[in-house]
User: Fold this.
Amino acid sequence: MRFEEFINTNTKQLTQTDRSILHFIIENKQKCSSIKASKLAELTYTSTAGLTRLSKRLGFSGFSELRFFLAQELADTQHAKQDYSKLLANDIQQTLKLIAQTDLYPIVKTISTAQRIYVYGTDWGEQRAAETLARNFLGCNLPFNIIPSITELNWTIQFLNINDLLILISFSGENVELNHISNQLKLKNIPTLSITPLSRNSLSTKTTYNLYYQTTEVELSNNPNLEYNYFAALELTVDALFRYYVDNIYLMNNTELS
Assistant:
């Protein structure tokens, strides 16, 4: 099991402080795999006792075991990174497992009954997935409204009601403005669906439904400020959602197509 899976399995037990610490750990795994508890507590504005409690909530005996797990995972990842083609196959397999473990019916049922459906992708890859999702559902005579940017998203949320559905596709679930918008929608009981990588789950704690995919970053440069993200697993996830809708809603309502 990957570290992020421990987080998602135990997410209901985590406090907001826990999530802030875990975000720091995920973004700094190399450092956290060898850092002392006292130093990590200092960097995350918490205490060593708080780190121990967090570790136990995730199923570890204490911070030392959590740190050892991170070191082992990093060692395994570095070994695996010798072959990015195999990593792609693993991402696809793990994404299919995540989809299989998710009850998709409530999601597609909400899609089928929503008065209006909006979909927003935070960046190029996410926007392309949003367009794919909208294009596929158009074949079922179900139009999606694509929101082009955060500005238009802010325009849109004032008009949403409980009969609508907003789909948010984000690689980084830590987007401050997007999380603020999600909080507003949650207070108004407006149905939302987040589609995010497994390791980025802050956004998913604020949405009605969640879909996860697994993706491995490809290291093309030694520059730590550059990210090279690829979206094969995301495309697979939105396609799987559409196909599940076709199988369990569309064809059931259009028996003459069966």
User: Anything to note?
Assistant: The chain has two domains: 3-80, 96-257. The domain at 3-80 is CATH 1.10.10.10 (Arc Repressor Mutant, subunit A).
